[in-house]
Amino acid sequence: MIRGLENVSVLTHISMLFLTTIMSIFAFGNPFFLLTISLPYLIFYMIDRSPGNGEVMRFRFNWWKNLPIWKYYCRYFQLKIEKTKHLESTFDSTNSGKLNGSNPITYIFGYHPHGIAALASFGLTNNGCDFDTKFPGIKMSLLTLTNNFQLPFYREYLLLSGLSSVSKKNILKLLENYISVCLVPGGAKESLAIDFSGNKINLVLKNRKGFVKIAITNTKNGRRTALVPIFSFGENELYKVVKAKEGSFLKNLQLWLKNNIGFTIPIFFGRGIWNADFGLMPYREKVTMVFGNPIEINLDNFEESSEETVVNHFHHLYIEELLKIFNENKDKYGYQNKVINFVD
Ligand SMILES: *[C@@H]1O[C@H](CO)[C@@H](O)[C@H](O)[C@H]1NC(C)=O
Predict the structure, then answer these.
(1) Average pLDDT of the segment spanning 35-61
(2) Would you say 290 and 283 are in contact if contact means Cβ atoms under 8 Å apart?
(3) Total number of domains in the chain
(4) Which of 65, 229, 236, 272 has the most CB atoms within 10 Å of its CB?
(5) Do the Cβ atoms of 326 and 113 come closer than 8 Å?
(6) Taking a C-beta distance cutoff of 8 angstroms, is the pair 182, 109 a contact?
(7) Is 342 a member of any domain?
(8) At what angle do helices 307-329 and 210-220 cross, to 10 degrees?
(9) Minimal-distance CA residue to ligand 1 atom 13
(10) Is 284 inside any structural domain?
(11) Is residue 280 part of a domain?
(12) Structural domain boundaries enclosing 298
């Protein structure tokens, strides 16, 4: 029974893009729905700029955050948040509207690795694994590609779940309103770099510095900002990836796609609902997200330095903290034979 509910919640989430596409076809293809629902919706769709304007919190409702489905979603992965350190609150935890003091801190969380679909990171955004209880007084928006917000109805699903666009403009607006953000610096590129059969955790991070720059900009605007790395043990194991052999048809196809349209799609599979051998459901692997120590941006000693020096300095500290939480926890979570490997 419980397993069934867990399956339903994960299945709902991974099929949401498909379900909302079907909804759109009905909504726009049927004259009755078109007049009653779709046209008013279309007007809203065209006017509403919340995903890119730092306004996602307008869509955050406690009843949605606390829906039982999110609890079952997290239970599927035995998903847990583990903190290394208490994070200072941004908002007064007794009265969620009020700021904690005159100069509260805001966070940029970085989630690693991306895995195939960063499924576990979704557990952070609603209250399924108690983010709000673990980090009281911190409001957070999980960030995803802007294109996702162009899809009718899917965008509302994301907005209700606290997701917004990973654009620079949106992030700066959110931080201005003291809303913390969580992003996945490795992006889709990292999902292509998964080394499933080997022992490497390939991370695309060396040249991904945009989030550090944004933290520095926000600090220069007079707001305290900290970077917090998250390492998610288990995220990479949720799907198996088919590694194409050199010279095989699949490898050639992937190379062709990469050269001609600029990206390629990993071939992956998971389990079925009733069988463990094949399907698109993720494996029931245990996932633990370890949060590192916050790295607060302090520019006091950098008045004379070039922007590049400052960015590299904090980017380096961030990577060190990420490696530290990985190395200190890997034995506990069955990663003793694995190493982090930075790729381009
Ligand atoms: C509120 O902010 C102060 C620093 O300004 C900090 O020391 C304190 O721990 C914060 N409160 C909570 C509950 O985190």
Answers:
(1) 91
(2) no
(3) 1
(4) 229
(5) no
(6) yes
(7) no
(8) 120
(9) 89
(10) no
(11) no
(12) 2-186+208-235+289-322
